[in-house]
Amino acid sequence: MFHGKTMTPTAYIRHTLTTAPGRIFGLVCVMYFITYVDRVNISTLAPLMARDLHLSNVQLGLALSAFGYPYALLQIAGGSLADSLGPRRTLVISGLIWGVATILTGLVGGLLSLIAIRVLLGIGEGATFPAATRAVAAWVPSTRRGYAQGMMHSSSRLANALTPPLTVMIALWLGWRGAFMALGCVSLGWTLAWAFMFRDRPASHPGVTAAELAELPVIDTPRTGAAKPSIPWRALIRAMMPATLIYFCYNWTLWLYITWLPSFFVQAYGLNLKHTAIFSFGVFTAGVVGDTCGGLFTDYLYRRHGNLPQARRQVIIASMIGSMLCLLPALFVHNLTAIGIALSAAFFFLELTVGPIWAIPMDMAPQYAGTSSGIMNTGSAIAGILSPFAFGLIIDLSHSYSLPFYGPVVLLIVGAALAFHYLPSRPDAAPGSSTPDAPNLGTPNPGTPNPGAPLSGHKLGNAHGH
To answer: N or C: which end of the chain has fewer CB within 10 A?
Structure first.
């Protein structure tokens, strides 16, 4: 499915439609798209909901943040569930819960019921990205993981871009309550497709060919009735902590975009929902490009230099510094066009982070990719709790839409510094590589036979069997 050279969009679509790994990967990308539609549709409809439910900015921020509490708590648990139970069953359960939660959002009558439904949505989506990362670890060649993660997350940014106009269009037809119900039904449809099409083990998929299997890594996958693998928690947490802190810094800014961007344009610049959707579409489209480019850049650096940790590290540092510099105009400039351009450029650079940082859990130990990505994504979930609420609180206290942008500027600097000091720059400098039970983020050259081979016991060597 994924070959050594970068595929053109036409070739990518052809592979997605004609190969079993491609169709599975396409289904995962659709999931990323839908989950983000169901996360951010509320931000587009927030002005209407706040009016009808009589919510202040603080109350709205509290409701938006409610998603993050269960989402944070279930990251690691959901990831370990995907490693032990398998991503197929894990995502079926998750899809049923988040689809029902989206439908129920259309029935809320006030702040408390809205918070309760947002909590249910967080429960449903808590395991989605760790489980999807575990699925992709088995279905994507090891040398194309950055590209794969970039494409997956670009699907979520495409959802960010399309959700405002799509949601407004549906709301004009069905009302904001009907919009939530319709989108929830789409989520349930994806869940049904996943249950029928996906298999935890590529070899057990009826449509996969021997040639396709030869490209895929060999990873221990739970079998029905088999003993569940023991997870080396201490080693995984120690190895993933730098990436978790960096991902928190990234997500503080991301959650501001996801939850407050439409309200920012409405309240700070007086735009109506139609023009807000247009500006939001432009900003999030820049993120789609950034996600794709970040994955391409990191895999290109790896193929060129053979140093996987450095390929991840360099792109992450450059993306955070670039995003910080582009956000600076938001502190001082009040021209709508200039702000739109600055926010778009900042989001492009911000999203370059995603491909390399989400490839790290799969690089480190693919059979524990669910657990390790769950550890890392906990940083996102905590930011998702704090960032939307802090943004709304600062606005209500200061009556300024510029002041809340100081937080992202500072945290992007912190994230770049953490990446520079704590992410390894050499394969032999992975976190804890001097200790016998620590994971190793390094990777040998891409020609290694059987990449992603199973690792024995609680010792995590590098992800490719050396």
So the answer is: C
Ramachandran category for residue 435: left, alpha or beta (phi over 0 → left; psi -120 to 50 → alpha) = beta
Domains of the chain: 15-200+231-429 (1.20.1250.20)
| Pairwise CA distance, residues 92 & 377, whole Å | 20
C-alpha distances out from residue 52 to 81, 108, 315, 364, 415, Å: 39, 11, 44, 48, 39
> Global pTM?
0.74
Q: SS3 letters for the chain?
A: CCCCCCCCHHHHHHHHHHCHHHHHHHHHHHHHHHHHHHHHHHHHHHHHHHHHHCCCHHHHHHHHHHCHHHHHHHHHHHHHHHHHHCHHHHHHHHHHHHHHHHHHHCCCCCHHHHHHHHHHHHHHHCCHHHHHHHHHHHHCCHHHHHHHHHHHHHHHHHHHHHHHHHHHHHHHHHHHHHHHHHHHHHHHHHHHHHHHHCCCCHHHCCCCCHHHHHHCCCCCCCCCCCCCCCCCHHHHHHHHHHHHHHHHHHHHHHHHHHHHHHHHHHHHHCCCHHHHHHHHHHHHHHHHHHHHHHHHHHHHHHHHHCCHHHHHHHHHHHHHHHHHHHHCHHHHCCCHHHHHHHHHHHHHHHHCCHHHHHHHHHHHCHHHHHHHHHHHHHHHHHHHHHHHHHHHHHHHHHCCCCHHHHHHHHHHHHHHHHHHHHCCCCHHHCCCCCCCCCCCCCCCCCCCCCCCCCCCCCCCCCCCCC
And the tokens for 282? Answer: 């432009």
User: At what angle are helices 20-53 and 87-105 packed, to 10 degrees?
Assistant: 30
Per-residue pLDDT tens digits of the chain, which is 466 residues long: 444 445 554 555 555 567 888 888 999 999 999 998 887 788 888 888 988 998 887 888 788 878 878 888 888 888 888 888 889 999 999 999 999 999 999 999 889 999 999 999 999 998 898 899 888 888 888 777 778 888 888 888 888 778 888 888 999 999 999 999 999 999 999 999 999 999 888 888 887 778 777 777 766 555 555 555 577 888 888 888 999 999 999 999 998 887 788 788 888 888 887 788 888 888 888 988 998 899 888 888 888 888 888 888 899 999 999 999 999 987 888 888 999 999 999 999 999 998 899 888 888 777 788 888 889 988 888 888 888 888 888 888 888 888 888 889 999 999 999 998 876 554 444 443 333 333 443 333 333 333 333 333 333 333 333 3
